[in-house]
Every structure is written in structure tokens, then in C-alpha cells.
């Protein structure tokens, strides 16, 4: 083997294992990309919501990034929860020189409704991080914050994806339709063309961490060398399988099943 496909996630934690760093590492592992992680915030959360948060000091975030970057080559990375401007600045400084795919999940609010980033950081993210991305993956409420307009229809979603690329400089934008009614449709605008990714809506409440899992899967497939539209198509299949085999565990919105695509089970 000439090189080991590897992926890095820069994000917050979820001790209940369904979202954040934990979901990302499980996804990397399942998709055979060597998984590495830099922790930005420790979040006390579970399937019912967020109970407490503590942010890592920025020198420690920078040091974690240096430790990984100086030692192990990787071919793709993602960011998830970047809670405030200081953290965003520290991360931007370290990732700017990297010339590999950057998938940004612009995490703002957890599925439970708990806010995960400071309000002024939303603007900073738009102005300073979006231009560094290969693709950003907002859900509808996040796309509304970024574009400063409401999104009610599939047409609005497509317009938002274009605006995020042309006005804010993202490499590409995937606006996800998990929060819409009907089919689970996402739109990718790659700068030239809009691609539609759709799947049947699965009737489940177990969607904790779907966004994290999806963006981690895009990073993992890109680390294997798949170009963006193909990586996205495969990641959509992965997240759909993970939702359709999700678990009714915990007292709230349960996690997705990260091993849903496995052919051989332990028993
Ligand atoms: N019930 C469902 N059935 C099928 N696909 C779904 C369902 N809910 C969400 N999806 C899909 O899952 C992916 C994640 O989308 P979603 O918009 O829910 O992300 P998110 O809100 O960022 O996730 P999170 O819950 O982690 O905050 C998208 O491809 C979306 O279409
Ligand atoms: C740490 C973290 N990142 C992202 C989300 C969004 O699902 C979450 N619940 N927790």
C-alpha cells in the first residue's frame, strides 16, 4: 500500500456517541479512512439535548492541529462545531496552508435545538472560513443564517446553494433537506451545475448526528480520491443507510447506525 487514506475532523464531542467527533471517527473507520481528531469543545450532551459545554483553550487547539499536521499525512478534513471567533481564528490559521479537500459542516444548532456557536461567530464563519472550503454542508436553518433569507421551497434551497458559492466564496455548497417535508432532497451547487441527491424519507426520530455523519462520510470518500459529486453520492447512500438502520436507544432522538453498510456482522 503506497499511502493510507486518512481523514481529520476538527469538532466538538458527544459522549453519547451519536454526533460530533465520535460520529466522525466511527464514520471514518467504517469507510476505511484512518481517522484522526482535534477537539475544539467538550460538550456534555446526549440524545435529549446539551447539558453543558467547555471550550478548549485556543493554544491547545492549535497545538493539537500542529501535532497531527506535522506527523501524519491526510487527504481530507472536516470541521464541525467551532464555537466562537477565537476558535475559528485559530483553526483558520492552521488549516489555510493545507491544499486538500476541506468539508465544512457549519454547525450552529444541535438537532435538539440547543445553540452550539456564538451569534457573532456566524458572521465570522461566513466571511473567513467559507472561502477556504471545498464544500460546505448547511442544513436549512444554517443556510438561512448564512444567506440571510428564508428558505421555504426546493427552489429556495437551490438559490441558497448558489448564493453561498457566488456571494460568500465557498468552493461548493450542499444545502440539506432533512428539515423539509417529503423526500429527503439535498442540492449540491459546484460552481457550474446543481446536482440533486434524493432519498426516500425514513419515518424515524433517530436522526441525532446525521449532519456530522454525512460530512464525515464526504471527507472519508474524498480521502480515497473520489471527486466531489461522486463522494457526495456515496456519502448520501451511507447516511441514508445509517438513518434507516438507526437505533432506538436513549431517551431522545437516537443515533444513526454507523455500521449499516457492513456485510459481515459479529453475530
Ligand atoms: N428522516 C430522514 N430520512 C431520510 N433522510 C434523511 C432524514 N432526515 C435527514 N435526512 C438526510 O440526512 C442528511 C442530513 O440532513 P439534515 O438536514 O438532517 O442535517 P443536519 O440538520 O445538519 O443534521 P443534525 O441532525 O446532525 O443537525 C441529509 O442528506 C438529509 O436529506
Ligand atoms: C459536538 C456536536 N457537533 C455537532 C452537533 C450537531 O448534530 C452536535 N449535536 N454536537
From TrEMBL:
<comment type="pathway">
    <text>Cofactor biosynthesis; thiamine diphosphate biosynthesis; 4-amino-2-methyl-5-diphosphomethylpyrimidine from 5-amino-1-(5-phospho-D-ribosyl)imidazole: step 3/3.</text>
</comment>
<dbReference type="InterPro" id="IPR013749">
    <property type="entry name" value="PM/HMP-P_kinase-1"/>
</dbReference>
<dbReference type="GO" id="GO:0005524">
    <property type="term" value="F:ATP binding"/>
</dbReference>
<dbReference type="GO" id="GO:0009228">
    <property type="term" value="P:thiamine biosynthetic process"/>
</dbReference>
<feature type="domain" description="Pyridoxamine kinase/Phosphomethylpyrimidine kinase">
    <location>
        <begin position="14"/>
        <end position="257"/>
    </location>
</feature>
<dbReference type="InterPro" id="IPR029056">
    <property type="entry name" value="Ribokinase-like"/>
</dbReference>
<comment type="similarity">
    <text>Belongs to the ThiD family.</text>
</comment>
<keyword id="KW-0784">Thiamine biosynthesis</keyword>
<dbReference type="Pfam" id="PF08543">
    <property type="entry name" value="Phos_pyr_kin"/>
</dbReference>
<keyword id="KW-0547">Nucleotide-binding</keyword>
<keyword id="KW-0067">ATP-binding</keyword>
<keyword id="KW-0808">Transferase</keyword>
<keyword id="KW-0418">Kinase</keyword>
<dbReference type="InterPro" id="IPR004399">
    <property type="entry name" value="HMP/HMP-P_kinase_dom"/>
</dbReference>
<dbReference type="GO" id="GO:0005829">
    <property type="term" value="C:cytosol"/>
</dbReference>
<comment type="pathway">
    <text>Cofactor biosynthesis; thiamine diphosphate biosynthesis; 4-amino-2-methyl-5-diphosphomethylpyrimidine from 5-amino-1-(5-phospho-D-ribosyl)imidazole: step 2/3.</text>
</comment>
<dbReference type="GO" id="GO:0008972">
    <property type="term" value="F:phosphomethylpyrimidine kinase activity"/>
</dbReference>
<protein>
    <recommendedName>
        <fullName>Hydroxymethylpyrimidine/phosphomethylpyrimidine kinase</fullName>
        <ecNumber>2.7.1.49</ecNumber>
        <ecNumber>2.7.4.7</ecNumber>
    </recommendedName>
</protein>
<dbReference type="GO" id="GO:0008902">
    <property type="term" value="F:hydroxymethylpyrimidine kinase activity"/>
</dbReference>
